[in-house]
Amino acid sequence: MTTTLPASHAFDRAIALQPLTANLFSGATSDDYQNMVGPFGGVTAATLLNAVLQHPERIGEPVSLTINFAGPVQPGAFEIEATPLRTNRSTQHWLLLQRQGGEVVTSGTAFFATRRETWSEQQESMPAAPAADSLPQQIRQERSWFQHYDFRYVTGLFHPKEQIKEGREGTESLLWTRDNPPRPLDFASLTALGDVFAPRIFHRRQRFTPAGTVSLTHYFHADAAQLAASGDRPLLGQARATRMHNNYSDQVAHLWSEDGVLLLTSTQVAYYKE
After folding, report:
1. Signal peptide: which range, if any (predicted)?
2. What is the rounded CA–CA span in Å between residue 186 and residue 109?
3. Mean pLDDT in the chain?
4. Within its chain, how far is the Cα of 87 from the centroid?
């Protein structure tokens, strides 16, 4: 099964891949999504997932994705190896490796499955929030990738210039977000949106701190039809940390559609320095 994504949006250009040989794809970093060190991690994760989405042997849709950022991705070309480790009747397990100069810079695993209609229930309700269009768009210019997302904060805005006393703020953020300009939601864009939250240490201390994601795992709760139903409308995102200890912090995040359907749960671990 092969999925072809449009190339008109900056996001689609950033995650574009060309097949080389069996299980191997080539791509290049995009200046549009640069972060402090290398590309925005959400776009890197989406690019690795895209290798599976485009793979001719792929069955089903993503249920989980784990990405490990082993080293900085340098500007320029890279290769992604997407290997189906095992395919069962309705499930499929993948190994993902991103290389530059012969070295692995990012690794990952993905689990795909063909979902069957069964009993279902949503335990995590969407928090109450004002409509996205009633909130101001947060404009930040520090990193190029910020400009490609629409951020509208409900609570938990990171605002170091206001010099808020350390300890006054917690680690939770609640905000509406989507691609900028708007783009119809799919698994690749949802993957990137799951990583748009700033490191929780930023919010806890209200100042920039050297920090970055080491490993993230996404759990996809929706199928392609449910994502398509969201169109290009904003998603409500909530993120918080549970503990920061000796240079490492976790993060737990959720993304809901406007009508309250939980689309994604994400967990990650990030390093930070004093």
Report:
1. none
2. 19
3. 92
4. 25
Residue 3 has pLDDT above 50, yes or no: no
In percent, the amount of the chain with pLDDT more than 70 equals: 93
What is the C-alpha end-to-end distance of the chain, expressed in Å? 47
Domains of the chain by start residue, with CATH: 10-113+134-272 (2.40.160.210)
Helix residue ranges, H only, the chain: 10-14, 41-54, 187-193, 200-205, 224-230
Distance CA(122)–CA(66), nearest Å, equals 23
CA angle, 21 then 66 then 127, to 5°: 135
Q: Is the dihedral of CA 197, 198, 202, 206 positive or negative?
A: negative
Q: How far is it, in rounded angstroms, from Cα 12 to Cα 9? A: 5
Structure tokens at 30: 């995009």
Nearest alpha carbon to residue 152 among 271, 236, 40, 231: 236
Q: Which helix (H) or strand (E) holds 218?
A: strand 211-220
pLDDT at 79: 98
Question: Region 107-114: what's the mean pLDDT?
Answer: 98
What is the dihedral angle through the alpha carbons of 89, 79, 66, 229, rounded to the nearest 10 degrees?
A: -70
Please give the pLDDT value at position 223: 96
Amino acid letter, 205: R
Asked whether the beta carbons of 60 and 72 are under 8 A apart, the reply is: no
Assess contact for 33 and 188: CB atoms under 8 A.
no
Arithmetic mean of pLDDT, 153-161: 81
Angle at 116 between CA 183 and CA 48, to 5 degrees: 40
Is residue 167 over pLDDT 60? no
Q: Would you say residue 77 has pLDDT above 80?
A: yes
Over residues 72-90, mean pLDDT: 97
